[in-house]
Design goal:
The structure is a single chain. Helix 1 packs parallel to helix 4. The chain starts with 8 loop residues before the first strand and ends with a strand. It is 37% helix and 21% strand. It folds into two domains: 66 residues; 198 residues, 3-Layer(aba) Sandwich (Rossmann fold). The strands form three sheets. The protein has a seven-stranded mixed beta sheet with strand order 7-6-5-8-9-11-10, with helices on both faces. It contains eleven helices and eleven strands.
Length: 291
């Protein structure tokens, strides 16, 4: 990439420099990544990038862009670099203490909203391992009659979720509780959702660097077989869910049948599964334990 010295530089020159560096590095979406970094860092729109390519950029902004581009080349995701990530219809702030929300997790939201069509209001939802608040806040943004409790073992993650709730005017319908999954909850919830850690410990080192090196390990590590957190949540289900309540969890597509079987061992009934955009099973909906 260009070393910019102390002189103003043209917008198009900066954009081309970053884009070419990303292409040469073999990044999967070099043009998109370059555009997002340039527009967000330099405070220009995509239209301005096209219409005013010779706009002069101050040296301090050029240096900031250069440092962010270096971070992307080192394996950090655009969301981590910018500190924000789009999810569902929300713009969420992320932190080093939270998992970065990803599009496949929207499958959990879809299953949750489908389940809630069968539940009379008012609705009470719990999100176990709430992180940024992505799943819970997306559900509440769609269901104005719903209230939610976000649970996380990390106090810093809870603070981030609370900030996101405030940003989206959902603070008055949310409560955030520090707990080991549902240990602190009572059987009052119509719906419990979770994207629990489900990567087998030995597989973590094989993950893409954007995940392995920057997502908190606490949010990834599911134990020797990747099922430890599911076992905890399934065991707690009866003490969280109302009669006819639903539990919806994200899964590793390869573990669909194993997770469903594990749920059955805890008395949970498999009601539905949903595929992500690549056509792989990504979430399962389970019925409350048989009485």
């Amino acid at each position: 990439m260009l070393e910019h010295g102390g002189h103003e530089i043209e917008l198009q020159t900066l954009y081309t420099s970053v884009k070419n560096a990303f292409r040469e590095a073999g990044l999967p979406t070099p043009d998109l990544d370059a555009r997002l970094l340039v527009t967000e860092t330099l405070g220009v729109s995509t239209a301005q990038l096209i219409a005013n390519p010779r706009r002069k950029i101050a040296p301090d902004l050029a240096r900031e862009l250069h440092e962010k581009a270096k971070a992307r080349l080192a394996g950090q995701s655009i969301g981590r670099i910018l500190g924000r990530r789009a999810f569902w219809s929300l713009d969420l702030r992320v932190s080093p203490h939270t998992l970065e929300p990803r599009p496949e997790t929207e499958t959990v939201v879809e299953l949750a909203l489908a389940a809630l069509t069968e539940i009379a209001p008012p609705v009470l939802v719990a999100d176990l391992g709430v992180g940024t608040g992505a799943i819970l806040l997306s559900i509440l943004s769609e269901r104005l009659d719903a209230r939610g409790v976000g649970v996380d073992v990390s106090e810093l993650a809870l603070r981030q979720a609370a900030r996101n709730a405030e940003r989206h005017n959902l603070a008055d319908r949310t409560l955030f509780v520090q707990s080991d999954f549902g240990a602190a909850l009572a059987p009052v919830f119509d719906l419990v959702v979770s994207n629990p850690p489900y990567i087998a410990t030995a597989d973590i080192e094989q993950l893409d660097a954007t995940v392995r090196d920057y997502d908190p390990r606490l949010a990834l590590d599911g134990g020797i077989d990747g099922l430890d957190c599911y076992r905890t949540v399934f065991r707690q289900a009866g003490s969280m869910l109302r009669k006819n309540g639903r539990l919806i969890v994200e899964i590793d597509p390869r573990a669909h049948d194993i997770v469903v079987d594990e749920a059955a061992r805890h008395g949970l009934i498999h009601l539905a599964s949903a595929d992500d955009l690549s056509g792989r099973p990504r979430a399962v909906s389970l019925g409350a334990p048989r009485s």
